[in-house]
Design brief:
By secondary structure, the chain is of the alpha/beta class. It has 2 domains: 148 residues, no CATH class; 214 residues, Vaccinia Virus protein VP39 (Rossmann fold), CATH 3.40.50. It has 12 helices and 15 strands. α9 links the parallel β12 and β13. α1 packs across α2 and α4 crosses α5. It starts with a strand and ends with a strand. The relative contact order is 0.10.
């Protein structure tokens, strides 16, 4: 998101922020300041634009993070604990984003000891800037880290290859759901839809498993560009057609796969739309519309975890009720336990729920009349 804000001289600046946060009310330019001074300004809705040494700015940011760090709350209502956790995340993110830097034309960062950030910013933004803009330092560091991961790629044994993911596209670091897709029987299917393809990892896996004609859909232009590049790298571009559309493309397929957001909560940034979906809107739309796009004897695969049940964000009968409403029946259910780091981290605020989480692949078909 981009907004216009003013400094104390009334000069307007473009403020860029990948979250849905409101911009600061004003900005001040400082060559040096301690964490306490930056925090005081942040609580007054004023952003500090750092003009001094880059590494010192990183130290100040680290000190602010340390001051904002709060111990996880235990006990009480589980659903309230989740929403409290989300609220604290949003508040801390807003405060951290009040320490910013000026990005000059051509994605240049003109601070002492600053790294070359041009490639990292080009990964995020489609076109080079012809005017300076202001950017939270915490987000810039995130862009730099994401750019390095984008170059390196993520090794996925299910693909016997790598997926490369830029900032703004959900990364398939949790590989357990890919194990389920690799194990589910293909049953001679030749056509498939991958709904909400993101990085393209599911479509690529279906191609590797021998499905000859796959249509992958997404509404995020970054995801479309990312998936296209991954299909080229993995040698499956001839098998996959990319379509920028919401949910289903035109026509029907033997197999339709969807890995929707798993938690019914409000996202605070574009990338969080892969994790949070208010009132399970995408999940319901997929289930209610999938029968119209399935060929005879076709299957719909729904990949989803039960973390929302353990967080008391939906009841245990929610999914089966949705299947019944959509006139879908379960052929089989595959499941696995998560192996990612958060699942075994007792310091994680949601450890009480993550320790019980199971990831499922539901094989569904249209109910016979």
């Amino acid at each position: 998101m981009a907004d216009l804000i003013s400094d104390h001289n009334g000069v307007s600046w473009e403020w860029r922020n990948e979250s849905t946060q409101k911009p600061p009310k004003q900005v001040i330019f400082l060559r040096e300041a301690g964490a306490d001074k930056v925090l005081k300004a942040a609580y007054e809705h004023t952003a500090v634009i750092w003009q001094g040494d880059f590494h010192q700015a990183k130290q100040v940011l680290a000190a602010i993070k340390k001051r904002l760090r709060r111990p996880a709350k235990t006990g009480g209502d589980i659903q309230t604990a989740f929403h409290t956790h989300r609220m604290q995340q949003a508040q801390q993110s807003r405060i951290l984003n009040m320490l910013a830097v000026e990005i000059d034309c051509g994605f240049q960062l003109s601070l002492p000891r600053a790294p070359d950030v041009k490639a990292a910013l080009a990964d995020v933004y489609e076109t080079e800037n012809t005017r300076p803009f202001l950017l939270p330092l915490n987000q810039l560091l995130g862009f730099i880290g994401a750019h390095e991961w984008h170059k390196k790629g993520i090794d996925l044994p299910q693909l016997n290859g790598k997926i490369h993911v830029p900032f703004g596209v959900f990364s398939p670091l949790r590989g357990e759901y890919l194990d389920l897709i690799a194990q589910a029987p293909i049953n001679g299917f030749q056509t498939a839809f991958d709904i909400g393809t993101g990085s393209g990892v599911i479509a690529a896996l279906l191609a590797k498993r021998g499905i000859s004609h796959i249509t992958a859909t997404d509404t995020n232009p970054r995801a479309i560009r990312c998936a296209r590049a991954n299909f080229q790298r993995l040698g499956c571009a001839q098998q996959v057609t990319l379509t920028e559309t919401d949910l289903f493309p035109a026509g029907k397929a033997d197999l339709i796969v969807c890995n929707p957001p798993w938690l019914p909560a409000k996202p605070t940034s574009t990338i969080e739309t892969a994790l949070y979906d208010p009132d399970h809107a995408m999940l319901k739309a997929f289930l209610n519309g999938v029968s119209k796009h399935l060929n005879d004897n076709g299957e719909a695969w729904l990949v989803i975890s039960d973390l929302a049940e353990h967080l008391h964000l939906r009841n245990n009968s929610f999914l089966t009720d949705c299947f019944q409403t959509a006139s879908l029946e379960i052929i089989d259910t595959l499941h696995t336990r998560p192996a990612h780091k958060k699942a075994a981290d007792p310091a994680d605020p949601l450890a009480f729920a993550r320790s019980q989480e199971t990831t499922f692949l539901y094989r569904l078909r249209t109910c016979s009349s």
